């Protein structure tokens, strides 16, 4: 997800407490499990902020494993929550859900541009969305949010574990998606497990750093921005 990070005063402590409690409730509902069946359709979603006060969320749906584009939709609307570090999913999720509702072809699993459980409170945007939609989700992020890892080898397909710095718990995997490029951070969201998240990410690589579902979501976000300007 492409985040707008405006400068400003510290967030309201009461708001932070409320959001923390909500995340803890969401975390209790997150389930790690393999998919019930191999996906026929895989979704990709991404959000961006054309202005400080607006958000544009895109969904693409692709056939799997061919990755032929089936559908693309977007929703553009106001941002109703201030920027609070660690709680960005609350800014994005309502608009992403509205975009999802527009899909005529619902995917079997959603690849989200962002983190799943690889989050300080284990509820990144992919896990957050998965619980609210009750849909299989996983996250593919371009930057680490939390955890420790050893750099994977420089060849495409190299993988190392992403571990909680305190407990050593596996919270994701660090994947080299293309030779000699910075790695991606793959983690399960909801109703998905790590093995499935990593396997599907690898299956969706087509020579770019980003896997096709999120790469195309990002591409169409740029195109759709032209319609809302």
UniProtKB/TrEMBL annotation:
Q: Which Gene3D superfamilies match?
A: archaeoglobus fulgidus dsm 4304 superfamily (3.30.2170.10)
Report the locations given in the UniProt record.
Cytoplasm
Enzyme class, UniProt record, top EC level: hydrolase
User: What does the record give as the reaction this protein catalyses?
Assistant: Endonucleolytic cleavage at apurinic or apyrimidinic sites to products with a 5'-phosphate
GO MF annotation list: endonuclease activity
One Pfam family of this chain = Endonuclease_5
Of which family is this protein a member? Answer: Belongs to the endonuclease V family.
**NCBIfam families attached here?**
PRK11617.1 (NF008629)
State what protein this is by name: Endonuclease V
